[in-house]
Write a structure and sequence with these properties.
The chain has about 550 residues and is α/β, with parallel strands linked by helices. The chain contains 18 helices and 27 strands. The protein has 3 domains: about 1-180, Alpha-D-Glucose-1,6-Bisphosphate, Chain A, domain 3; about 185-405, Alpha-D-Glucose-1,6-Bisphosphate, subunit A, domain 3 (Alpha-D-Glucose-1,6-Bisphosphate, Chain A, domain 3, 3-Layer(aba) Sandwich); about 410-540, Alpha-D-phosphohexomutase, C-terminal domain (TATA-Binding Protein). Helix content is about 35%, strand content about 25%. Strands 2-6-5-3-4-9-8 form a 7-stranded mixed sheet, with helices on both faces. Strand 20 and strand 21 form a beta hairpin. Helix 2 (about 35-45) crosses helix 5 and helix 7 (about 195-205) crosses helix 13 (about 380-390). Bound molecules: 1-O-phosphono-alpha-D-glucopyranose (G1P) and zinc ion (ZN).
Length: about 550
């Protein structure tokens, strides 16, 4: 086996976004594209020499080929060991757990999360740090700089490593350890939750449907929910991972997991339903006749986590990304917990978790997690809900209704405008940015503007500043509108408009969300001129 140095040159556009480098699969398959970026990862972290890494992905198209390249480049870079999930599979939270548990120097996760997979769809790669969390901006910036300066990469000439068998083999001087992707993760879940109580819940006839959306959580959900906890066989739907996610869009929201929403709204509704995304870090929570918004889910979990063994001693604090609704803030205020508002992207929670400032955190984009790993965790959220339902004896609808009565309700929706011409999206953002100063004091259907700014975050742990994190407009009614451009899109620009209204009148809290948010939607258009500038008449996706 020979180590070779391949001459290459910089490829434009290899800048990691909200969650690593995401591009069309065919872009990643271009000569040198993946190799350049992997070399830039090594260069960005001070080399691979003597290090141990975890590598795995969500099984999407090109996952298997990319892993073989990464293994050969890790070996050429002098890494001492790579731990890989069997068949190259690891959910993102399971990878985060392995990185931490095995005290490695980090890991590479291959996924484009909830984006579709396939030759004509999306692929992605990101580096996670030894704490198990996504690389922070200073590290991803170093990687980006390395992509611009690259002149060569090192790779071993070798046959593919057999990733189908558990055990350790070698690749040149480097060990390759193939592990069961589920085992360590399942053990962690068993430590956090009262599996006995959840087992009893199922034994009493409680029904569940978990839609794995043909993505990576299938094997995890089958082993834990059906295997260990005794949910009836068939409770896990679409449980076999496929490279193109069965041709679907593995995003657990009411649009892409519509059949599941239809099921819970119909006569054969199970007691509880949930879905996860391509790489297993997102979740959607449903009950009989009810959809729980991710922002509400975070708030309900924060208010009830003490009922669960892993969180029985209480929460250190909570955090949410800026566009996430303020529902969890109200829980924090009532319970005397500190509450942090961070920019979009899980990486911003890392320092707060590492520093012990927060225990739970979440994003409106169906991400919820805790200090057990350094990624959001879809199946964990499902188990936390199940444990709370078992401990409280309440249904999802009862728990949610009681929550709104106690804390008030933050009605919430997000409108996405996809593949907008970048120039138009930027023009719209510039227009709002330019009017921020004059908005305060003006009155709109959503109320009088009390605050309007471009969000910037000062990390309280390392003092770093992240500017330009979205435009927010706050109203005296408790309503809020936020405008942001996506950092994960792969085509043109995606405009996200986040819309929120607050209500604490016990009668009005049961209103239809679209009615409760009508004024806020009208206000967002008045402030942004989105329709006129982009030519769009309505959002592509509403969640
Ligand atoms: C989106 C979500 C964000 C999430 C990220 C990765 O990023 O909005 O909350 O952390 O995906 O899953 P965006 O495309 O908005 O930059
Ligand atoms: Zn994901």
């Amino acid at each position: 086996m020979e180590k070779i140095r391949v001459e290459t040159s910089a490829i434009a556009g290899q800048k990691p976004g909200t969650s690593g480098l995401r591009k069309k699969t065919k872009v990643f398959m271009q000569p040198h594209y993946l190799e350049n970026f992997v070399q830039a990862i090594w260069n960005g972290i001070g080399g691979a020499e003597g290090k141990t890494f975890v590598v795995g992905g969500d099984g999407r198209y090109f996952n298997d080929r990319a892993i073989q390249v990464i293994l050969r480049m890790a070996a050429a870079g002098g890494a001492s060991k790579v731990i890989v999930g069997q068949d190259g599979l690891l959910s993102t939270p399971a990878a985060s757990n392995l990185i931490r548990k095995r005290k490695t120097d980090g890991g590479i996760i291959l996924s484009a999360s909830h984006n579709p997979g396939g030759l004509d769809e999306d692929f992605g790669i990101k580096f996670n740090m030894p704490n198990g969390g996504p690389a922070p901006e200073d590290v991803t910036n170093r990687m980006f700089e390395a992509t611009k300066a690259i002149a060569s990469y090192d790779i071993l000439e070798a046959q593919d490593v057999d990733l189908s068998k558990i055990g350790t083999t070698s690749l040149g001087e480097m060990d390759v350890e193939v592990v069961d992707p589920v085992a360590d993760y399942a053990a962690l879940m068993e430590k956090l939750f009262d599996f006995g109580a959840i087992r009893e819940l199922f034994a009493r006839g409680f029904t569940l449907r978990f839609d794995a959306m043909h993505a990576v959580t299938g094997p995890y959900a089958k082993a834990i929910l059906e295997g260990t906890l005794g949910a009836s066989p068939g409770s896990v739907l679409n449980g076999v991972p496929s490279p193109d996610f069965g041709g679907g869009h593995p995003d657990p929201n009411p649009i892409w997991a519509k059949p599941l929403v239809d099921l819970v709204m119909g006569p054969d509704a199970p007691d509880f339903a949930a879905a996860s995304d391509g790489d297993g870090d997102r979740n959607m929570i449903l009950g009989k006749g009810v959809y729980v918004t991710p922002s509400d889910s975070l708030a309900v979990l924060a208010a009830n986590a003490h009922l669960v063994p892993g969180y029985a001693k209480g929460l250190a604090g909570v955090a949410r990304s800026m566009p996430t609704s303020g529902a969890v803030d109200r829980v924090a205020q009532a319970r005397g917990l500190s509450c942090y508002e961070t920019p979009t992207g899980w990486k911003f929670f890392g320092n707060l978790l590492d520093d012990g400032r927060i225990t739970l955190c979440g994003e409106e984009s169906a991400g919820t997690g805790s200090d057990h790993v350094r990624e959001k965790d879809g199946l964990w959220a499902v188990l936390l809900w199940l444990n709370i339902l078992a401990a409280s004896g309440k249904s999802v609808a009862e728990l949610l209704g009681a929550h709104w009565q106690e804390f008030g309700r933050n009605f919430y929706t997000r409108h996405d405008y996809e593949a907008v011409e970048s120039a138009k999206a930027n023009a719209m953002m510039d227009g709002i940015r330019g009017s921020l100063d004059t908005l305060v004091g003006q009155t709109f259907p959503a109320g009088g503007v009390t605050m309007a700014d471009e969000f910037a975050y000062d990390d309280p742990v390392d003092g770093s500043r992240s500017a330009g994190q979205g435009l927010r407009v706050q109203f005296d009614s408790g309503a809020r509108v936020v405008f942001r451009l996506s950092g994960t899109g792969t085509e043109g620009a995606t405009i996200r408009v986040y819309l929120e209204a607050f209500e604490n009148d016990p009668v009005k809290i049961n209103a239809d969300p679209s009615e409760a948010l009508a004024d806020v939607i009208e206000t967002a258009e008045a402030i942004s001129n989105l329709k006129a500038i982009t030519g769009r008449t309505g959002p592509d996706v509403t969640t």
